[in-house]
Amino acid sequence: VNRVFSGIQPTGHLHLGNYLGAIIKFIELQKTHDCLYCVVDLHAITVAQNPDELRAHIRELTAAYIACGIDYEKQIIFNQSQVSGHAELAWVLNCVARVGWLNRMTQFKEKAGKDRENASVGLYDYPILMAADILLYKATHVPVGEDQKQHLELARDIAQKFNLDFASAIAAHGFEDAFFPLPEPLIQGPAQRVMSLRDGTKKMSKSDPSDNSRINLSDDAEAIAQKIRKAKTDPEALPSEVEGLAKRPEAENLVGIYAALIGETKADVLKTFGGGNFSTFKTALVDLAVDKLGPIGAEMKRLKAETAFIDQVLVNGATRARALAEPHMAAVKDIMGFVR
Ligand code: AQP
After folding, report:
1. Where is the short sequence motif 'HIGH' region located (predicted)?
2. Sheet containing strand 76-79, strands side by side
3. What's the pLDDT at 203?
């Protein structure tokens, strides 16, 4: 079977980068695949979280999944910590993966910054937990943004090493040689890397201290308009050709956002706006963004008051996720030689 798994961290307000880089693909894939979309709260705590805020963010992310159009009845929306298999399999995979592999992960280096000695062990181990998330369900396809490519490659390496290291036990228990399928990253999408509105060289991120750096899915029309109007640009007119966007990261980002939201290429967008000034283009971008994101924000606002409903969606999702995970975890234990 083809099975899709992906997750987003409840570390803050979901933004346009998460939407264009990940959620749009989630929505498309649910038409053709069985999908699990996870609120990865265990990943969130790899950096310090305030417990009350974390709880609110878990519910907000769940609401965002639903508001964006994920069918929570057909697909599985759930919260990572409610299915114990994630942590359990992560431990097993910790013992399969090598320290040298983790040392190559660039996201850890970026997130830990200069004070690496003080980063949590969890932050270092993050990619192993991510591999466990995917392999627990034997997921075959993982839609993510560009920034997660390296972690997906690691998940494939871990799956392959497990299959090889335990080949004879896997065979002895009658499982297929490829006990863990090698998960395929699905990176192509309308915008693989949306950049900050304040700095075109930094990715748009939930944890950026400046709220003006991102468009949140929960922003109302006024906030969207204000952030786009304030977005950093350069003094030149928009180019007529895509090549003209090189070395103009802010211009490239805004054109890319417009293209992704309307479903055209950057070249198409420049056919309309090339040669014009930023203020005309920004006005059009505000209208488009409000048109596409306004209904999502309104639905999120409505769901914010429906805590009992949101919590129930998560309980139901976890029950269904557990039913898929449990036989795989039991098999892993048998393969490893654990007594059950
Ligand atoms: N700027 C982005 N452009 C395109 N895709 C993005 N994604 C995140 N930022 C962008 C994709 O969204 C999914 C969920 O990401 P995540 O929350 O699990 O982790 P992240 O990549 O660390 O996201 P943030 O927003 O930057 O969070 P913080 O600030 O907490 O680290 C992933 O598929 C990711 O590729």
Report:
1. 10-18
2. 76-79, 34-39, 3-8, 141-143, 184-186
3. 93
Per annotation, catalytic residue among 111, 292, 304, 333: 111
Query: What torsion, rounded to 10 degrees, do the Cα atoms 164, 168, 171, 172 define?
Result: -150
As given in the structure block, the two tokens for residue 167 are 């080949």
Q: Distance from the CA of 279 to the center of ligand 1, in angstroms?
A: 28
Catalytic residue, chosen from 25, 203, 227, 282, is 203
Domain match, 31 and 65 both? yes
Question: Which residues, judged by CB distance below 6 Å to any ligand atom, belong to the binding site of ligand 1?
Answer: 8-9, 11, 17-18, 21-22, 144-145, 147-148, 192-194, 203-207
Q: Tell me, yes or no, whether 198 lies in a domain.
A: no
Same domain, 123 and 232: no
pLDDT at 177: 87
Q: Which domain holds residue 46?
A: 3-192+307-336
Per the annotation, where are the binding residues? 9-11, 17-18, 133, 145-147, 194, 203-207
pTM above 0.80, yes or no: yes
Q: Is residue 204 part of a domain?
A: no
State the Cα–Cα distance between residues 229 and 206, nearest whole angstrom. Answer: 20
Report the CATH number that the domain containing residue 289 is assigned in CATH. Answer: 1.10.240.10
* Confidence (pLDDT) at 145: 83
